[in-house]
Amino acid sequence: MVPDDFEVPFGKARIRREGFRFEYNHLRQHNAPLSECGGTPRKRRVAGKVEVIDIRSLIPLDRETIYGSVKKTGKALVVHEDKVFGGFGGEIAAGIGSDMFRYLDAPVQRVGSTFTPVGFNPILERAVLPDADRIYEAAKKLLEF
Q: Would 32 disulfide with which of 25, 28, 73, 85, CB 3.0-4.6 Å?
């Protein structure tokens, strides 16, 4: 039960699952891309040993937590519920790509909703939004890089 006086810290991300950097020969045992930006319950289902960050606010954006994870894991998978083209996840990916390039072992990857209008109906939303299978396939591709 959440206390009545509970507040989410403004501008502070939360690491939902710890991850770690891995050596290539340990790829099958130690998976560690970063995942962030919405869809946290779906990400946690596919995460394994992947670091999962819930950014919780876009402005201010907790770059310190995000960039610290990139330094630790060497990879970044940005997952968000908006379309990949034009979504805020692209801004996060761009920041990681330019500010953290020297720490990346692979290109930043993104997963978002399909490029289609979203119907405000639970069945239609499930068909459009990123699901566990799409996130898993993107993480697998990133880890095999």
A: 73
